[in-house]
Amino acid sequence: MDEDVVRQILKVKPKRIVYVSCNPATQARDLAWLDESYEVLNVHPVDMFPQTHHVENIVTKPDSAELHSVPQKNKKTLQLRGFSISKK
Predict the structure, then answer these.
(1) What is the pLDDT of residues 53-69, one digit of tens each?
(2) How many CA atoms within 13 Å lie on the side-chain side of 23?
(3) What residue segments make up the domains of the chain, in order of their start?
(4) Cα gap 30→71, rounded to integer Å
(5) Is the Cβ–Cβ distance between 42 and 75 less than 8 Å?
(6) Alpha carbon distance 70, 20 (integer Å)
(7) Measuring CA to CA, how many Å separate 14 from each of 18, 41, 65, 76, 88?
(8) Which of 2, 37, 61, 87 falls 20 to 30 Å from 67 in CA-CA distance?
């Protein structure tokens, strides 16, 4: 995402972001930009093209209020292609 898009998302403040990406490196960068208001709840890799090395990722990133309503047992640290995404 472009930084202007991230700023607009932070300005609009949706309750939840579901971010689908085919590039884990740029997705990790973009998720870091959203960290001031959102935390990763789930990362679900999907192998839509098994004959290639590409993996699509679906990330759920609720706002802080929604995240804190999630039971503690569901909060995890995730390791994905060299990127560590963890709860605050």
Answers:
(1) 888 988 988 776 665 55
(2) 6
(3) 3-71
(4) 26
(5) no
(6) 22
(7) 10, 15, 12, 23, 19
(8) 2
Q: Which contiguous run of DSSP H or E holds residue 65?
A: helix 64-67
For residue 56, what are the β-bridge partners? 46
Q: What is the pTM of this model?
A: 0.65
Q: Do residues 73 and 35 make contact, with C-beta atoms less than 8 angstroms apart? A: no
Question: Is residue 86 a contact partner of residue 78, using CB atoms and an 8 Å limit?
Answer: yes
pLDDT, mean over the chain:
76
Residues tagged active-site: 22
Q: Which of 12, 19, 74, 10 is nearest to 41 (CA)?
A: 74
> Structure tokens of 20?
């689908």
Cβ partners under 8 Å of residue 44, min gap 6: 57, 58, 59
Cα separation of 35 and 39, whole Å?
Answer: 6
